Amino acid sequence: MAWAAAVMLASLVVLALVGPLVWGASADRPDASAVLQGPSVGHPFGTDNLGRDVLARVLTATRPSLLLALAAVLLGAGAGILLGASTAVLGRRARRLTAGLINLLLAFPALLVAMFLAVVFGAGAAGAMLALAAAGVPGFARLTQTLAAGVAGTDHLAAARVLGLGRLRLLGRHVLPNIAEPLLLSTTTAAGTSLVALSGLSFLGLGVQPPGYDWGQLLNQGLDRVYAEPLPALAPGLAILYAALAFQLLGEVLAGNAARRGPAPRTPAPTPAPWGSPRPKAGGGPAEEGLVLQVEDLHVELPTPDGPIRPVHGVSLALRPGEIVGLVGESGSGKSLTALAIADLLPYGARVSRRTLRLLGADLAALAPKERDRHLATGLAMIFQNPASALNPALRVATQLTEAVRAHRGASRAQATAEAAEALRRVALPPAVLRSRPHQLSGGQRQRVMIASGLMVRPGLIIADEPTTALDVTVQREITRLLSEIRRDTSAAILFISHDVALVGEFCESILVMYAGTIVETLPADRLADGARHPYTRALVASVPDLTADRDRPLPTIDGAPPDPLTPAPGCPFEPRCPRRRGHCADHTPPLEDLAADHRVACWYPVPVAADPETVAAS
């Protein structure tokens, strides 16, 4: 198929270039003695009503026919793709208006629109070309809108938004490359359709006008004697069929190789700044001295068909430089939503309220949108649970690692590439990975690339949202050891989110236990195994298996299910599942109170320290 498409397209290109030069004179030379002749040795396809050779005219008409068709499809595809892709980066109101416009335009048949506009623009080559381009815009817009919708909700596009990238850059780097294959196929096949439609307009007298001619006009001229001499009419028809088939084959060939290929990274030249160098401070002075992150009374509200829910409410936490804090809890407890609210990456429609949200001393609520995006992009790094979706599959690793520093620090390509190579060395990956795409790397390598991407901006805070969940035990240990080394070398604070209580207890310094959207206990990690006081925390610890567990007995579990966020009940959210519940627990929500200087618990009847975790879980 590739060879056939190449040969057919090459023949069309040659005819378009040399046709007017070789056969142009005989195509325009009238001969009164050879009017309306049939096929002969001198005229293989006969002559027209002025004695001009039909074959010469068909060959000469290759150039105007192809140029007009390609111009129409490129204009229509360009406008339609931009219109449809814009729905992935526009705001809610503009996206709704754009989608309504596309739906309205699709209500009219494209061919009728082209005929109507050809009359409005005026009969002629330019009018027909513009009419076909305008008629093709809605179809390309709808296709692009549908494809872009699949990219709009990806993690890498959300990360690009928080980096502060403009809408044009979002389109060019993060939306269009990921939908290029079907768009390229549609554009090439539409070239054949456009050629047929343009010939149809010329056939109806709305396209190319005499003394000019294209295949459609030649088809019209030969149709009058198709029953007596079919070849003069079949010649331009065969030319149209040949060209349309060539474009169709081209689309099929390119469809398998349409992934965008960026340029290979240049050889690093400048030496990057040392990793221990101080970062410039952003924003105003902190409300409390020495805090990297300060969150007080954070609430998140999400819209649902059955009404709004509040999966996160009343969350408060603080991190100091170089501190590793673990955030644990069952799935659905609000851990990831808390992290996304801090990073301003919540899904559309979510509402956030808080009394305080400061990052590196700057009050995020007091910053303008662009300043807030820039501050988040340079002060915070997010390591997602699934790097396969967080990394853009259409871009090389080099492009994704250097984008932030080029956008926010004004670094040159060479300088940014050098810093990216150094970041990869920091996470034990060779610089050759810069030339790879995410699908060419293993799961552990992709997670290391995610960490390296965060290190590029030298953040003060790293939020690791279950970064080891999809990895095997060996790679888990490597990732946690790597994060510990980064914390030691850069003094960055780390918020480590996980449901693996054993891993968090070993890796972190302090633990935040979350249940039903709120913090129920905070304590040092070394007291997690035997010093937890909340029944939920003790049950989580008891559910972790060890080598001494009796294999003949089932593993301890927490009976029941978390509360339904649509119908929150008064009192303690853990009350229906708690082995220590009493009547007071069902009516009053316990506050998070101090048990010691570094230990707080939200429970009316905390578990005594001497209680055995398995006994608590089983009771």
UniProtKB/TrEMBL annotation:
<comment type="similarity">
    <text>Belongs to the ABC transporter superfamily.</text>
</comment>
<dbReference type="InterPro" id="IPR035906">
    <property type="entry name" value="MetI-like_sf"/>
</dbReference>
<dbReference type="InterPro" id="IPR003439">
    <property type="entry name" value="ABC_transporter-like_ATP-bd"/>
</dbReference>
<keyword id="KW-1003">Cell membrane</keyword>
<feature type="transmembrane region" description="Helical">
    <location>
        <begin position="102"/>
        <end position="135"/>
    </location>
</feature>
<dbReference type="Pfam" id="PF08352">
    <property type="entry name" value="oligo_HPY"/>
</dbReference>
<feature type="domain" description="ABC transporter">
    <location>
        <begin position="293"/>
        <end position="541"/>
    </location>
</feature>
<dbReference type="GO" id="GO:0055085">
    <property type="term" value="P:transmembrane transport"/>
</dbReference>
<dbReference type="GO" id="GO:0005524">
    <property type="term" value="F:ATP binding"/>
</dbReference>
<dbReference type="GO" id="GO:0015833">
    <property type="term" value="P:peptide transport"/>
</dbReference>
<dbReference type="GO" id="GO:0005886">
    <property type="term" value="C:plasma membrane"/>
</dbReference>
<keyword id="KW-0813">Transport</keyword>
<keyword id="KW-0067">ATP-binding</keyword>
<protein>
    <submittedName>
        <fullName>Peptide ABC transporter ATP-binding protein</fullName>
    </submittedName>
</protein>
<feature type="region of interest" description="Disordered">
    <location>
        <begin position="259"/>
        <end position="287"/>
    </location>
</feature>
<keyword id="KW-0547">Nucleotide-binding</keyword>
<keyword id="KW-0812">Transmembrane</keyword>
<dbReference type="InterPro" id="IPR017871">
    <property type="entry name" value="ABC_transporter-like_CS"/>
</dbReference>
<feature type="compositionally biased region" description="Pro residues">
    <location>
        <begin position="265"/>
        <end position="277"/>
    </location>
</feature>
<comment type="similarity">
    <text>Belongs to the binding-protein-dependent transport system permease family.</text>
</comment>
<dbReference type="InterPro" id="IPR050388">
    <property type="entry name" value="ABC_Ni/Peptide_Import"/>
</dbReference>
<dbReference type="Pfam" id="PF00528">
    <property type="entry name" value="BPD_transp_1"/>
</dbReference>
<dbReference type="InterPro" id="IPR027417">
    <property type="entry name" value="P-loop_NTPase"/>
</dbReference>
<dbReference type="Pfam" id="PF00005">
    <property type="entry name" value="ABC_tran"/>
</dbReference>
<dbReference type="GO" id="GO:0016887">
    <property type="term" value="F:ATP hydrolysis activity"/>
</dbReference>
<feature type="transmembrane region" description="Helical">
    <location>
        <begin position="66"/>
        <end position="90"/>
    </location>
</feature>
<dbReference type="InterPro" id="IPR003593">
    <property type="entry name" value="AAA+_ATPase"/>
</dbReference>
<dbReference type="InterPro" id="IPR013563">
    <property type="entry name" value="Oligopep_ABC_C"/>
</dbReference>
<dbReference type="InterPro" id="IPR000515">
    <property type="entry name" value="MetI-like"/>
</dbReference>
<keyword id="KW-0472">Membrane</keyword>
<feature type="domain" description="ABC transmembrane type-1">
    <location>
        <begin position="62"/>
        <end position="251"/>
    </location>
</feature>
<keyword id="KW-1133">Transmembrane helix</keyword>
